[in-house]
């Protein structure tokens, strides 16, 4: 069996292959080699076969083990070479489909709840430009950042959802499922760090528990403009050769982003030009009406203020409804400024909002009335007033933490609206992605085959 040990370099190279996911991660430097890798893998199979032939020639006597290996290898090779044609026949995943990770009987769902932003209302790419510009302006005027920062422009090709920022080292990180920094997913400002630079900073690509404490996640719909602004500010200080504390950069950018939201600057900007920022959906009204006709109860639960929701709903449904206020008739309960995720754990009381006087009533809320707007509140009070049981309620939102984790603990079913998955699924449907998967499969298959040879 000594002759088989000469296969070690070949199989080691296969086992060392890694796959970098594409799609939304492509902007952080990932690469897909596509069909070229598959064809090179076919060549690798041929080289593997030559080595087996040499091993057979070196054998001084008949060896049943070699015959068995030859049969197994021929079977594996036939299966491998037939994979491309099989891939073409495989059905593709619908990027606009609905997917579940557990059984759900819709006939048992009696109550449908909705978040507003990025759930009922969807926005164009211009929104991130607006948030970015308003935040950088706030940093220059209020936090006294250099005037040159006003020339910064939002780069939609740079950020992705789900990044982490290291408040100590100032790096933006993309972590994999196991908490390790992806090989091409670490940026210092706009500079992509090499694997050697990553190891120099962190000692290893794996983020330990102590290191994780200084990481902050960028998860909500502000994360794109926030990540881009953080990177641009870090890059400015690096280029200007100025000392800075990476933690202060995050605090200032985050405070500026929160100011844009809580001050109403973003809301007023959107409503001032809804055609530029809001995306109409002609099926929205039809969907809500179908639910009502089927006897379902509907509620709206959002952190946004009422005037912003009202203006947006009127704009999105103006082509479908004659009465500008008719959107409220679709919902049994409308709750604004709910302060999620605190809504799910607090015991704040509900307050009735007067839409004409822009004031909150002082009377206790012990029932929800149609066409009335309610502010604040808590999940505990919501359940006490409505008497809606957890398993019969489903809530739709876009944020895994502020929208979906709290309701699931109350027994509600939850549904996530994640638009990035559409692009990701489309990429996974492409031939280049599928051939890359074949390459990985082949690497593992022949690597396993080699170690089986060694055992013999």
Task: Describe the protein.
The protein has a domain at 126-272. The chain starts with 7 loop residues before the first helix and ends with a helix. The chain is globular. The chain has helices at residues 8-15, 35-58, 64-81, 83-89, 126-142, 195-202, 209-212, 223-239, 246-262, 265-272, 274-277, 284-293, 306-317, 379-386, 400-409, 420-429, 431-455; strands at 111-114, 122-123, 163-166, 171-175, 181-188, 191-192, 215-218, 278-279, 297-301, 333-336, 350-354, 359-360, 373-376, 393-397, 413-416. Helix 1 crosses helix 17. The strands form three sheets. Strands 12-11-13-10-9-1-14-15 form an eight-stranded mixed sheet, with helices on both faces. Strands 6-5-4-3-7 form a five-stranded antiparallel sheet, covered by helices on one side. A hairpin with a 4-residue loop joins strand 11 and strand 12. It has 17 helices and 15 strands.
Hey, roughly how much beta strand do the residues contain?
5-15%
Helix content: 40-55%
Shape: globular
Gyration radius from CA atoms, angstroms: 28 Å
Keywords: Coiled coil, Hydrolase, Magnesium, Metal-binding
Coiled coil: 45-72
GO molecular function: 5'-nucleotidase activity; metal ion binding
Family: Belongs to the 5'(3')-deoxyribonucleotidase family.
In short:
This protein is of the alpha/beta class and 456 residues long. The chain is built from 17 helices and 15 strands. The protein has a domain at 126-272.
């Amino acid at each position: 069996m000594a002759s088989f040990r000469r296969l070690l370099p070949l199989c080691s190279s296969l086992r060392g292959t890694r796959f970098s996911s594409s799609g939304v991660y492509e902007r952080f430097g990932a690469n897909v080699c596509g069909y070229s890798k598959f064809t090179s893998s076919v060549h690798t199979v041929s080289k593997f076969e030559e080595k087996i032939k040499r091993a057979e020639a070196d054998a001084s006597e008949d060896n049943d083990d070699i015959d068995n290996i030859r049969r197994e290898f021929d079977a594996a090779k036939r299966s491998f070479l037939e994979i491309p044609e099989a891939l073409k026949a495989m059905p593709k995943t619908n990027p606009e489909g609905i997917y579940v990770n557990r059984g759900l009987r819709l006939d048992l769902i009696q109550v449908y709840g909705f978040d507003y932003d990025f759930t009922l209302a969807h926005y164009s790419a211009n929104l991130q430009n607006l948030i970015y510009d308003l935040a950088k302006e706030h940093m220059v005027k209020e936090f006294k950042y250099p005037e040159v920062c006003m020339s910064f422009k939002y780069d939609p090709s740079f950020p992705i959802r789900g990044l982490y920022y290291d408040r100590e080292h100032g790096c933006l990180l993309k972590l994999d499922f196991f908490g390790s920094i992806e090989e091409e997913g670490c940026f210092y400002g706009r500079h992509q760090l090499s694997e050697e630079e990553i190891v120099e900073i962190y000692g290893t690509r794996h983020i330990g528990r102590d290191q994780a404490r200084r990481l902050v996640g960028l998860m909500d719909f502000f994360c794109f403009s926030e990540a881009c602004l953080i990177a641009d500010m870090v890059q400015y200080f690096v280029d200007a050769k100025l000392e800075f504390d990476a933690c202060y950069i995050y605090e200032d950018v985050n405070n500026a982003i929160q100011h844009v939201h809580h001050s109403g600057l973003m809301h007023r900007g959107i409503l001032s030009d809804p055609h530029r920022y809001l995306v109409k959906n002609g099926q929205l009204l039809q969907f809500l009406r179908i639910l009502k006709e089927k006897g379902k109860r509907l509620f709206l639960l959002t952190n946004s203020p009422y005037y912003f929701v009202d203006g947006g709903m009127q704009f999105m449904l103006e082509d479908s409804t004659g009465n500008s206020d008719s959107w409220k008739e679709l919902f049994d309960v409308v709750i604004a400024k709910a302060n999620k995720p605190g809504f799910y754990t607090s015991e704040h009381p509900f307050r009735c909002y007067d839409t004409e006087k822009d004031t909150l009533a002082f009377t206790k809320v012990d029932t929800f009335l149609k066409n009335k707007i309610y502010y604040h509140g808590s999940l505990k009070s919501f359940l006490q007033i409505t008497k809606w049981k957890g398993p019969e309620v489903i809530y739709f939102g876009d944020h895994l933490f502020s929208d979906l984790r709290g309701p699931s603990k109350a027994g509600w079913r939850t549904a996530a609206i994640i638009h990035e998955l559409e692009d990701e699924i489309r990429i996974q449907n492409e031939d280049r992605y599928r051939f890359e998967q074949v390459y990985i499969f082949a690497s593992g298959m022949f690597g396993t085959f080699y170690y089986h040879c060694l055992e013999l």
